[in-house]
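4.2 Preliminary Data

To establish feasibility before requesting continued support, the project team ran the inverse folding procedure on a target of 244 residues. The structure was first converted into the token representation described in Section 3, and no sequence information of any kind was made available to the design step. The complete token record follows.
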């Protein structure tokens, strides 16, 4: 059987994406108007509009009412449905990765942290605070708490460019269960300072907990400036995950 004909709007999307991949239209460029694309592609305005709308929703284009449609600045995207190491993602893009450890030590768990780790309030926990940078720009603030009973040598590690907290934890204790919660929030004044952003900038916040043998191993709050990062995944309807 022959393959079914490709939908017109998909052909329009492929045309635009071809221009983006070839570098003919670069980030920040104003692309041809809808009317111009209608003429060039020989398609209806409705078809072209749908293609541009979907490309905008997917983050490839930026449409400004009364001005035009621009090529969007690219944002790194992290997989939402699996535990990933941000250093691997940055290096895979061919970019320079850096890690700045701001705090690593042992402290008494607050009520909220103790609840997240399923420990008594005031229990001793490891606390790590670090910033991950891509090409010198902060893209993620990691605020992590770890159960010392399960990972007793966590605070003795020299975390940085060569060894990241997520990599170490996956090496010493494979999780049997994980929980991801995504929130939109404004950073605290300290978070904004560490990420070098304004306190009014919206952030994508990923809250993650992992378990091993029924016990919570770690609870981490990952804060991403929304202008610099995206979270997302793609999976088949049968639940089998595909790469983003």
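Position-by-position output of the design step:
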């Amino acid at each position: 059987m022959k393959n079914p004909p490709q939908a017109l709007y998909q052909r329009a999307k492929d045309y635009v994406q071809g221009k983006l991949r070839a570098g003919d239209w670069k980030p920040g460029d104003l692309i041809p108007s809808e009317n111009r694309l209608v003429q060039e592609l020989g398609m209806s305005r409705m078809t072209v509009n749908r293609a541009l709308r979907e490309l905008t929703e997917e983050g490839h284009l930026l449409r400004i009412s009364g001005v035009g449609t621009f090529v969007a600045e690219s944002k790194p995207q992290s997989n939402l449905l699996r535990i990933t190491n941000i250093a691997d993602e940055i290096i895979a893009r061919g970019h320079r990765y850096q890690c700045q450890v701001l705090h690593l030590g042992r402290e008494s768990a607050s009520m909220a942290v103790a609840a997240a780790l399923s420990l008594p309030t005031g229990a001793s926990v490891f606390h790590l605070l670090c910033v991950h940078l891509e090409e010198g720009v902060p893209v993620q603030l990691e605020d992590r708490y770890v159960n010392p009973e399960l990972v007793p040598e966590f605070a003795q590690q020299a975390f940085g460019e060569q060894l990241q907290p997520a990599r170490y934890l996956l090496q010493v204790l494979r999780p049997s269960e994980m929980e991801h919660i995504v929130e939109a929030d404004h950073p605290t004044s300290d978070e904004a300072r560490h990420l070098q952003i304004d306190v009014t900038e919206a952030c994508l916040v990923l809250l993650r907990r992992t378990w091993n043998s029924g016990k919570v191993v770690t609870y981490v709050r990952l804060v991403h400036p929304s202008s610099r990062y995206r979270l997302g995944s793609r999976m088949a309807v049968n639940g089998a995950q595909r790469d983003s």
